Amino acid sequence: MTALSPVGDGFDLAKVDPDSTPDVTDRKKAEKQLVKNVAELGSLQEKLFAESKFEGKRSVLLVLQAMDTAGKGGIIRHVVGGVDPQGVHLHAFKAPTDEEKQHDFLWRVRKELPLPGQIGVFDRSHYEDVLIHRVRGFSTLEAIEERYGIIKDFEASLTDTTIIKVMLHISADEQKARLQERLDNPEKNWKFNPGDIDEREHWPAYQEAYQIALTRTSTPDAPWYVVPANHKWYARWAVQGLLLDALRGLHPEYPKVDFDVEAEKKRLAAT
């Protein structure tokens, strides 16, 4: 559905225009397609979930990373929100708790991986440990360098999980406008975090950290996609397309039952 290319050799984040809308020239058409595709997305997810009830082991994991206000919540509501909740596992990773700090950085991530048949969604993820840690110096550079390899090995070990990693890429000006809206609108004041202004001071450092993480950890089996996100409607359309492409590629099918359907119809009719 989408022609967005995964991050590969020679990728330069600075050359991706957050205001662009690759593959789309008609917003209204894209928004209609977003609504129309909900039915197919729900059907594919249901088949994947049904497989798991008959020993199927496959799952899908959508990783969403972004600067604050980039639209992760909107993606979850408008894209993932259209499928049956029982087949979705959503987890938002916040600052680690005292208990989590006592373990390796992947400990809390392993506990939240999707079960067979589920679409897992990470609102932020294990990549925080090479992004904010690099920018704010929460870990040594030696430890961070080691984590890129650990992350790649970890993702490669998830052989039954199709991984889609998305960076929602917004500009500093667009983030400023969205933060301003949260301050201007009393109904959105609760969304504002004063710390977001502090983080804006590190914008160039975050872009560098993303550049390194994207190029070091994008692999054929766990690719990164950079989605321009200044336009919320486009980001939702693009991420839905990536998720649809992944599910279509799995070709999930309703499992064959291990009982005689016609015989059960007769038994039911006799009751």
Tell me about this structure:
This protein is α/β, with parallel strands linked by helices and 271 residues long. The protein has one domain (13-269): P-loop containing nucleotide triphosphate hydrolases (Rossmann fold), CATH 3.40.50.300. Helices cover 47% and strands 12% of the residues. It has 11 helices and 5 strands; from the N terminus they run αβαβααβααβαααβαα. It has helices spanning 27-52, 72-78, 98-101, 107-110, 128-136, 141-156, 172-184, 195-200, 203-217, 232-250, 261-269; strands at residues 59-66, 88-92, 119-123, 161-169, 224-228. A 5-stranded parallel sheet has the order 2-3-1-4-5, sandwiched between helices. The radius of gyration is 20 Å and the shape is globular. The model has no long low-confidence stretch (mean pLDDT 95).
Fold topology:
Elements: H1 27-52, E1 59-66, H2 72-78, E2 88-92, H3 98-101, H4 107-110, E3 119-123, H5 128-136, H6 141-156, E4 161-169, H7 172-184, H8 195-200, H9 203-217, E5 224-228, H10 232-250, H11 261-269
Parallel strand pairs: 1-3, 1-4, 2-3, 4-5
Helix pairs in contact: 1-10, 5-6, 5-9
